[in-house]
## 1
Amino acid sequence: MIIPIDRQKKEPLYSQIELFIKDAIENGTLKVHTKLPSIRQLSKDINVNRMTVETAYQQLEAAGLIEKRLGSGTFVLPHHQIEQTTSDKVDSQWPLWQQAPQKRIRQRYTNLSAIPHNIDKSDNPINFAGGIGDPQLFPINEFSKILQKVIKRDGVIGLSYGEPNGYLPLRNTICQIMTSLGTSAKPENILITTGSQQAINLVMHLLLKPGDIVLTESPTYSGALDLFKASGIKQIGVPLDQDGMQLDIMEKMIQQHHPKLIYTIPTFHNPTGISMSGKRRRKLIAIAGKYNIPILEDDYVGDLRYDGCGQPTLKSLDTGGRVIYTSTFSKMLMPDLRIGFIIAEGPVYNCLVNLKCLTDLATSNLFQRALESYLSIGRYQSHLRKTKRLYRKRRDCMVNAINKYLGDCASFHIPTGGIYIWLQLHEEVDHKVLLENCTKEGVVYFTGLELHTENHQLKNFIRLNFAFQSEANIEKGIKRFSEVLNNLSSSQS
Amino acid sequence: MIIPIDRQKKEPLYSQIELFIKDAIENGTLKVHTKLPSIRQLSKDINVNRMTVETAYQQLEAAGLIEKRLGSGTFVLPHHQIEQTTSDKVDSQWPLWQQAPQKRIRQRYTNLSAIPHNIDKSDNPINFAGGIGDPQLFPINEFSKILQKVIKRDGVIGLSYGEPNGYLPLRNTICQIMTSLGTSAKPENILITTGSQQAINLVMHLLLKPGDIVLTESPTYSGALDLFKASGIKQIGVPLDQDGMQLDIMEKMIQQHHPKLIYTIPTFHNPTGISMSGKRRRKLIAIAGKYNIPILEDDYVGDLRYDGCGQPTLKSLDTGGRVIYTSTFSKMLMPDLRIGFIIAEGPVYNCLVNLKCLTDLATSNLFQRALESYLSIGRYQSHLRKTKRLYRKRRDCMVNAINKYLGDCASFHIPTGGIYIWLQLHEEVDHKVLLENCTKEGVVYFTGLELHTENHQLKNFIRLNFAFQSEANIEKGIKRFSEVLNNLSSSQS
């Protein structure tokens, strides 16, 4: 044990020791029944006379905080825990650098739209708000077995830092998956990241500086919006129609604002579920080329397609290193894997690899190896088939429930993949109150309000995740939502 | 399977399909014996006539790339792989944004001092270069069992996103460990990070902007230096003596340069092994208070002490939220856990939590739970005792070997903890040649050169990791090093 003592202080050493231990007991970090170090050991650890420690222990024992048990040592006694209030300081008590001059920065990093795991899970509401698939589908048992196998097979190497750009067999396997999805990639152009959120972060830090402008769909993924906001990047939204971003408007915005990056989710867009048409995809690449703007393509659920035929990724249409592509295994497999990847060509690739290393040194080698093993024994494809079957049913279930309960008061497009339905309410309501009332009734969703976009046309939308809940809960949740909505509408009118 | 086809192109659809599959086979992403999708399936997937796919397959078969096997499908045939050269483009072939205007940025993110896992492991050299402990000590089997247990116990919850600031029981356990080391902390002031590299990154992004100045020890941890450099932060080094940073010099630097952050490794400093004296620690806190500068304390191996009594952390001496503290389980346990943590008070804490979420959403919940379980069943303390016993022996072994083989030509201080010896060579040598020659002889280390500091006094130092190798290898490695050094000296003179 180390105790910070100060020989310059007037306060005697024994009472400094006493006070430190007393505080630790009272704030609960030294738990009841904890054995304290012996007097000999502590006096050695902190280089004081044994008598000093003995005196401190005697004082603590006299105060009823600890107890010496002959032959077994000194132990912390049960006590009434005293609430400390040091963290309730008002702002002015913190150092200046934590205060006013940093207000701008604090504003950036607080009041962010909720990253969607902040819902109070204790109430166990019907949850249409989240950004992940159904945890019940996570192949946990298989994954557990594979972890064992990989640890046994690879030993310490599997738990040491691996290659900076990621585990080569995993990069190879990803290339094969990407090829089967129509996107040719080589392992030396793949960078494994800690989820695709890190990928967005890396690209942003590499290509943009505070004050630069990024074009995105309007609305777009809240985690990207928050990240741009927090980094001082200005975001400008391009409106969507059924075929994706409206490129004529975009081109005017480019001429006016000179953006440094186009961030897009062309397939099963978050939150609207819209997929960009093939024609638009080609045109987008051409525009990016004409104006020399890099594209970051976020393909977060590209493989979760339920109907129709797939569109090629922007990456597959790009022959000149214009598109940086990112995807993740979070939605299709498990978020806690924390494994996403980037595909990039040209000089930017090595920069991204270096930046990734500087950011967190490495993504878990063990998880990379386990994922590779899972993918290469072919479980992934059958897991994906099963997942798609189920999510398609849930989408249909939600579509039917909306038609049944909300047919008159809302409209939407049926998404052909992904996990979201983007619902437009016909009547204007107070969305803050609506969400509050819904939460009380045990149903939550993600409101367009939180996308804090400038686009007023979006104010009457909500985002519903149809993949997360069972069909029974989807039906029940939409019914509850419609009741709350009707109550609110009639009380407002 | 999806294939990017373009109906606007003059090239017929069948040949677009043919070309895509041909490329995929030739660059190896469609492996030999892979089964291609049926004609019916592919035509549905990409919405073309079956005849179109059939024609493409016929062409590919005629070219000897695939084979139709009656009743079982169409398969990729063995072939001579053709090396592609698209990634060998010269710079001018990349989009403009990948070229000249980005040169400044590219310079920042390339030519970084090697993050120390870039050594070619195939040669299996005696490795004094790394920044981690001995992988043979990783408690792999126990960890594997705990992973099983936690997956069984927690199910899907253990593999979903957890609390944004980290798994509460782990934060509680960390508080207990910190208290036993003399630093009182509360769980609501702890933020779990993806290693301490991420912690440094978060603090830097929160408090500094490009052009700002950070004061560090000179020399200091290369990963922090690289990160500062890559982010456009100016780093100024404060020279060390045996008691740590020379604070008189530091104060003058503060007056002159107005730094926005002091980054320090006060305990078993990397690379020098020096620990800051208690008196200096208190004075540093006072200076930081006087000039309103936050301190980032990097305690990467604070618990690996072999002799003497420990110094209090800066954090434990700080009563006013001046010090942001970071530590990690990478050195004491396993780097691949990717778990470090921050202790911070005041408004800055929530900003760091938000920034962490924006950066990579979450640190693996499963690993956090497994670590908590490992720590709370008390294995950690015994693991740490065992590790310290072994590393102390290895330190002594390296000290003896240096005295024996390099006694006349080098000097150093014996570190009382950590994993590094910082060795000063008496005679000036060409360090690039020295390292090359050593590598040829199968011994590698980390040269002070790579710390690219302005401080010329540091040019004749090398850093040796004594924790990574067995005693036999330490003796052998130092002997080899001395031979290479002698040969080089005599050839130079």
Note: The mean pLDDT of chain A is 87.
## 2
Amino acid sequence: MGVVVQNVLRADQSIVDRLAVCGVATVHEAQGRKGLLASYMRPIYPGTRIAASAVTISAPPGDNWMVHVAIEQLRDGDILLLAPTSPCEDGYFGDLLATSAMARGCRGLVIDAGVRDVADLTVMKFPVWSKAIFAQGTVKETLGSVNVPVVCAGALVNPGDVIVADDDGVCVVRREEAADVADKAEARVAAEVGKRKRLAAGELGLDIYDMRGRLTGKGLKYV
Amino acid sequence: MGVVVQNVLRADQSIVDRLAVCGVATVHEAQGRKGLLASYMRPIYPGTRIAASAVTISAPPGDNWMVHVAIEQLRDGDILLLAPTSPCEDGYFGDLLATSAMARGCRGLVIDAGVRDVADLTVMKFPVWSKAIFAQGTVKETLGSVNVPVVCAGALVNPGDVIVADDDGVCVVRREEAADVADKAEARVAAEVGKRKRLAAGELGLDIYDMRGRLTGKGLKYV
Amino acid sequence: MGVVVQNVLRADQSIVDRLAVCGVATVHEAQGRKGLLASYMRPIYPGTRIAASAVTISAPPGDNWMVHVAIEQLRDGDILLLAPTSPCEDGYFGDLLATSAMARGCRGLVIDAGVRDVADLTVMKFPVWSKAIFAQGTVKETLGSVNVPVVCAGALVNPGDVIVADDDGVCVVRREEAADVADKAEARVAAEVGKRKRLAAGELGLDIYDMRGRLTGKGLKYV
Amino acid sequence: MGVVVQNVLRADQSIVDRLAVCGVATVHEAQGRKGLLASYMRPIYPGTRIAASAVTISAPPGDNWMVHVAIEQLRDGDILLLAPTSPCEDGYFGDLLATSAMARGCRGLVIDAGVRDVADLTVMKFPVWSKAIFAQGTVKETLGSVNVPVVCAGALVNPGDVIVADDDGVCVVRREEAADVADKAEARVAAEVGKRKRLAAGELGLDIYDMRGRLTGKGLKYV
Amino acid sequence: MGVVVQNVLRADQSIVDRLAVCGVATVHEAQGRKGLLASYMRPIYPGTRIAASAVTISAPPGDNWMVHVAIEQLRDGDILLLAPTSPCEDGYFGDLLATSAMARGCRGLVIDAGVRDVADLTVMKFPVWSKAIFAQGTVKETLGSVNVPVVCAGALVNPGDVIVADDDGVCVVRREEAADVADKAEARVAAEVGKRKRLAAGELGLDIYDMRGRLTGKGLKYV
Amino acid sequence: MGVVVQNVLRADQSIVDRLAVCGVATVHEAQGRKGLLASYMRPIYPGTRIAASAVTISAPPGDNWMVHVAIEQLRDGDILLLAPTSPCEDGYFGDLLATSAMARGCRGLVIDAGVRDVADLTVMKFPVWSKAIFAQGTVKETLGSVNVPVVCAGALVNPGDVIVADDDGVCVVRREEAADVADKAEARVAAEVGKRKRLAAGELGLDIYDMRGRLTGKGLKYV
């Protein structure tokens, strides 16, 4: 506790942006079905799809002091990601902090705790994925750390990892794997175009994916 | 496990459509306050009210193979209803499966598990009532069954039963009782028109429903 | 149980309205970070910010009889607030009761249980903050009380206390403290204007709030 | 609602007792991995393993009137099984009701709600599997039904079905299948004796069940 | 926040002890089915039944400083009761604090948060009813208050109120009502003796409480 | 997925055993209040305190195939630790697997899912810390991995890390830090002896830890 790591490697911004286009479900599949944060992490308003490099925050329960420290570490294209050191739903973050973060180029917040001023944040178009919406205020008494590895909503996030977030939730991509995952995700998107057309035309997945033989082999019976 | 029942009786489509107009709360009351699925079953977007005949799916946790099998069993005016064999929030269903289901005339999905691609599903106007929104991918390894009775979110659903779903949640109506329930539900709707007018004019339920005597009899005291 | 208190003191309506303008998060801070209801109390639709005087209801689980009794006690500018005597998610309240309550000048409902007909309530612009959306019907068999102190979603609410509610949740302000809290909340709002401007211009909270020295004193290390 | 079915078929008591010996996990496997109640159903004290024929109760939330009605329907070797019509944790059952039930030969209680007087019930050796332990009292105002099919903790239970319960939870076996399931369960128990001996001697499941080839075929890599 | 109330009235110790004998379920019924804390408040070990006067603690999340302050306020026959100002499961209390509290005559702890060292506390016979068992450590940075009214697990508790706790959970009795409740609770206990004997002899509650007529009147049908 | 790492470094067994003596709460404090698994991880029976080196398992939901693979990797003094790739409560593990694991010197199981046969496991003295007790059976169809880093109940665990578990829950200690943490934990235990004696004699923590001045400085008021 009490450490701020200042020089964190980020993925190339163009790669980050390619991941944003693919979205959470596709990126998650493309990297081998890993990296999802828990399903309780929900956006405060629908319709946003972003990717950004994580500035991580490890914070004590009910204490948002480190958010101020973390904002100074933000670079254009980053996202704040906060994990409390024990479960907490307090509202660590509101419209003033969002104003400050946006001034530093921040693209949003992922927080395994609560957020408040959500009506203002919606108007400001500052997207947040959180465990709770809760006005409960916090104190500024105890140190945490910034840009250290954290477990957030069940997923390990290293500083500089790429966070992809949309209406399906939040997914983390290792910085080192981001380019490779972007390639694979775009390949999936491309492959889906043809399948979508065939499915829309009434062809069945049973036939497109050639499942009937294997189903029969496992013993499926039609009665 | 491993059974697909192919010829399932449905209620008459005109009856199904009458139930849709009445909505979940009224249908639930009309059939004697039964048939509701658990309150955690929520629509992925607001503003839809539908009714449809259930094609049921009993699926293993984290395995969506049977969804492909079930889609072949869909008829125009049906809804898919999936219950996992043990609790699971994985995302069994996304935009490709929805494309396929819509091509078969499917009106939506009720799933006691997770769904993904919800931004796409919203654009496609494919309504889903689910336990979770979660991008977690699934496998295709283990058989389940299609069109067998299932317990979904605490309610027993037989294949061919009518599912009514709107912003209040999901209700199941036995196929055999659908016509009778539709009659009773429409009668409730009609009866409410007059009451709504009187209440809007300032009359009290205490008087309209003649409750004062019974309240006093039970011992209610005004101080 | 079985008591209706009829003459309840309310805060001055002008004070109530000033609290509405400030919103939940600010009012909660202004009164010393107290009075919040639990974070599971969510609005049925976004975008409303209100304040109103509480007409409280203590009701048995699954029994909405007392809501009818409470509606008679409503005055213009009031809000209904219902706490069940044991945990319950049943739908105590729907569009007919809302019609009746609106006819009496009621501004909304706060209920530590379920609500139904939410599509209608949304159209009617009758705001509700609830624990659940659930169509489950209730009975009218057992007495409760109206305008007695209740614990609702973890907060003590006295009849006549001011309820402030918006997209962040629900906060209760003691009637006797309402004027003082309104003053303090407005002062906070005013103070935030300047800070927001400085933060938007890129100044850091670390500097505006002069935190660097204290952080160093606690041992924060930059690496 | 409001129906008491009096003449319910039970499985032969000797079959019921054979199922008790096998226990929940084995019986569940023997009947094809079905019939389990939700994992939140826990015994109030450890160390009991029973089987019995279900006398089912469908009861309103917070109303235990029907328990009295159900007790009259008990025969020696039965178990009470209560499902509320909407989720409820109230304490429907305590030591007086247990005294009455034991006098009728009742072997225990399965309740998807609360129980109280658990210290007394422990001394009396009256086993209960419940969702909660909660002293909250109930009323006697609204009818439910006795010996109708119910969904209890996610499982369909018909009156006369066999309930198997132990420290692993609760499983329901259809009355008509009880003899067959008992045969299969006993066969599993017998087969496990040899396996247990080999495993205890240090042989690996990988070898006993001949898994290595299939694992390699799926692509498992040792590094 | 930041207040310690020193001279708190307690109920007479003999009355407190009479309530202990009656237990939670009976006391709760005797005072009109009120005063229960939420069902998630569970004892760390079974078999204890106590009553004691509450020394209340309002504490910030993850900060146990006020426990030390509260211990000085303990008198022989008291119990500590802690409510965090926002939901928290951290382990505020362990064997050292219990040692200190026992030295002051403390009978136990009720905490709407976590406790740790439960193996030691079990050996020491220091009973605790808590929301969680969690080793998570706390800090000593922020003030709370001692002996102020708190809402604990959904129930309002004033300093000096009587807490009754056993395997069924926790109930609060207002200090001013303690004598009256003790009388009523003992009357209930006495009345149950005869009923228990009749029930054990096989008489039915349906007859003892003369329910058959009323059930028929409500429409109960035997088929 | 599909990887088994065979040669994993373990901490020295003597260090592991020293950590066991200190217990979860002390070890957690000694390493700076980190490493705890979530509070929902509970022992299936009370009274055990162990430490062991982790053989980690990443397994699909409802598929226990990898447990068999992992058992082959066990060495004397190890513990199995399983994290499903998406949330699951199925019973991955029972008495046969425990028999096999014990034959390999395994000290227990930590599983962020379900366990079954708990009555047998209790008799066998095979300790398990789990999220659920659930008889639900699993399949053997999909690969996972053994001895890879996993996030288990919110904590990152590397293969070979030391797991400390007792009635307070579960804590992970990095293998590389185990010796240092053991030193610090033992120092804490030693320091507590003197404090416990003084507290038992009636001295207050307020005085022993010299808190009064700082409390006054923060503004604490006695009234």
Note: Chain F has eight helices and twelve strands.
